Amino acid sequence: MNEFDNIKPYSDKDVPAAIKRLADNELFPAIIHYLFPDRNFEEYRNEFINIKTVKEFQVKFVYSAMKSIIKNTSTGFHYSGANNIDKDDCHVYISNHRDIALDAALFDCVLYENNIDTCEITFGNNLMQGDFIIDFGKINKMFRIMRGGNAHDFYKQSIEVSQYIRYTILEKKQSIWIAQRNGRTKDGDDKTELGVLKMLSLGSKSNFVENFNEINILPISISYEYEPCDFMKTQELFITKYQKYEKEPGEDMKSILNGISQKKGEIHLSICPPIIIEELEYCDRFDKNEKFIQLAKIIDDRIYRDYKLFKNNYIAHDLLNKSYRYENHYSKEDKESFIQYKNNGLSQLNGDYDELEQIFLKIYATPVDNCERFKKH
To answer: Of these four, 9, 125, 276, 373, which has the most CB atoms within 10 Å of its CB?
Structure first.
């Protein structure tokens, strides 16, 4: 296990010291006040520093925090498909990715509520900024994966991560949550990147079918009525049209906080049927790279067949196409409310308004096209 020391999450023996560091951090009072405004801070802190295990931390702090976030920033969180999880087996959960922190955290809530052990979660090294975030992530079963870097180092660390994932699934008997792509979907077009699947395959010398069958892939589909960080994503996509986008210092943390605090409307998470061996055998008929292309298509098909569209998606699609095709999915008041939301947000951005509007509407409208396309198959 020593070979994974630089990427693995904390074990129970690491928890007491990490909890003390979190409780002593200058950020801690503001976070507790935001999450639990009705609690006396000193009383809560005394309870917090007595947390001794990873499970205690997830149940007493993370789950309670998520319930508070759901209550204060959404009109409801719903899920479906929990029966698709084999409680006696471990899975690699491959999820579409819309919010840095919430996607995996909401899924862990579903697991907890169904008496299923929470999963380990990928944690990009670009997000591991500051002791507070590192401690919080590692207590919450998050393990480090490489973002960026030169090709040689990236490949070497991809092998290490792949081996760790396989070790976690087969030896530790812990499931894994991983995004379908490197970073969040910003344009609304969820697609499984071949690089993610190829990385997962690096940890085994077995043939294609055995390799993927033993990690038991189960796709996850999450959608938000109000896209997390939608205006931040719009601004970034606008800038990217004209030049290379350079993140400002602290931008990832700003996105995390924005995603947590902004209004979300409804949230839905679908647990899709797992990838079965017959599907892997079908992919294996193709040439090497095409195998991964076919597997990615199957995962994408699962995600969009179970993707929940909201009224905002239909409104944006009609606005973008200057049509009334989906008007039976929303009311006049819904449309007026969304237009006001759009106009207010876009007025705060820099750039040509019409271009920004097109980008913003596509973020919401693209899932409609994807769902229609996959449901025709």
So the answer is: 9
Report the mean per-residue pLDDT for the chain: 94
pTM above 0.90, yes or no: yes
Written as six digits, the tokens of 87 are 């409680």
Residues of the chain with pLDDT > 90, as a percent, come to 86
How, if at all, do strands 217-224 and 265-271 pair?
antiparallel
Q: SS3 string of the chain?
A: CHHHCCCCCCCHHHHHHHHHHHHHCCCHHHHHHHHCCCCCHHHHHHHHCCCCCHHHHHHHHHHHHHHHHHHHHEEEEEEECHHHCCCCCCCEEEECCCCCCHHHHHHHHHHHHCCCCCCEEEEEHHHCCCHHHHHHHHHCCEEEECCCCCHHHHHHHHHHHHHHHHHHHHCCCCCEEEECCCCCCCCCCCCCCHHHHHHHHCCCCCCHHHHHHCCCEEEEEEEECCCCCHHHHHHHHHHHCCCCCCCCCCHHHHHHHHHHHCCCEEEEEEECCCCCHHHHHHHCCCCHHHHHHHHHHHHHHHHHHCCCCCHHHHHHHHHHHCCCCCHHHCCHHHHHHHHHHHHHHHCCCCCCHHHHHHHHHHHHHHHHHHHHHHHCC
Q: Is the pLDDT of residue 155 over 90?
A: no
Q: What pLDDT, in 10s, does the model give residues 225-258? A: 999 999 999 999 999 999 988 888 878 888 989 9
What was the pLDDT predicted at 126? Answer: 74
